[in-house]
């Protein structure tokens, strides 16, 4: 009876860990992609070029990406509730700074502060889920990754709709209030003491195949660069087709809802054609669908966007679930921090490059550059095959 009771307690605590990690992930990913709804407004108000707009956007994503490893080390001694709650408080404080009437400088400072807060969430949330469900954590990580797309589908759409009625600063302020509410909920919800197991997965194999991890991280970086590059231009593309702010919100919601479905679709696809096959298929589909949106009218773009979201976001779930398998020396926490450093850093820097390309050519050429990036992943994915075979 006591053994059964203890098992039930551990199971309930594990579910709480997963729910809390998913809520944090949904909020922070909603914060990250919710910023895209504000890009046309900021471009108009502050007179920004495409490259300048990407640079402003990179203040958040670049800070978040570059602080993954140091932030993970800084909060390693804290409980999961404290680490995730503190991260969310800081991110919400950044949005509050953006909402204040402090001009362009205040916007930039707020983006940096919010990015610093969000840098903690991914490695600690991922590690919490991995430890809780080790050694069979791939499915739980898929749920955690899926939760991020729920935030991406709701917050950008809500922000875009609100922008039709009120100025952008009150909308950002509401996002800050939501963050404070979630932060205090995390402090109260996650068990202070973990119920997790060690995640030193196959240390000898991970150590002997660690050269596969940089390749995995590179693939993740290129995949993220494709996604962030296209997202830079999507609101502007929809406006150019005659879309309004609600249309932009609808477009982002359709893309991110497709991305959420892509997590499940890629899991199903991966079971049948393998990790490598699913990555190759989704990246080819991504490139083709990106090109289609360049030549379609607004109504048909809305039809294509969910399918593009499936391919554009679904790949990340496959890559993400592979991190514990190829973690150098079996250090999963550090591996997740390094992985996010690469992918978020690419997500912050690549749009600047795409924006510069568009500034010196056209928006269409910038979008085509994102499609070419997706295609460049195919040979890299094929090269990853031998490392996965060794681990398994």
Describe this structure in words.
The structure is a single chain. This protein is mainly α. It contains 14 helices and no strands. Helix 3 runs antiparallel to helix 13 and helix 6 (103-133) packs antiparallel against helix 7. The protein is globular and about 50 Å long. It starts with a helix and ends with a helix.
List the helices and strands and how they pair.
Elements: H1 2-34, H2 39-46, H3 50-66, H4 68-74, H5 80-99, H6 103-133, H7 138-162, H8 168-189, H9 203-208, H10 212-240, H11 245-295, H12 298-326, H13 332-360, H14 363-391
Q: How many beta strands in the DSSP annotation?
A: 0
What is the strand content?
under 5%
The coarse silhouette is globular
Question: Which range best describes the helical content: under 10%, 10-25%, 25-40%, 40-55%, 55-70% or over 70%?
Answer: over 70%
Terminal-residue CA separation? 38 Å
Please describe the biggest sheet, giving its number of strands, its sense, and whether it closes into a barrel: none
Cα gyration radius (Å): 20 Å
Contiguous uncertain segments of 5+ residues: 193-210
Q: Which sequence of SSEs, written as H and E, runs from N to C?
A: HHHHHHHHHHHHHH
Please report the number of helical segments.
14
Q: What is the mean pLDDT?
A: 82
* Structural class based on helices, strands and sheet pairing: mainly alpha
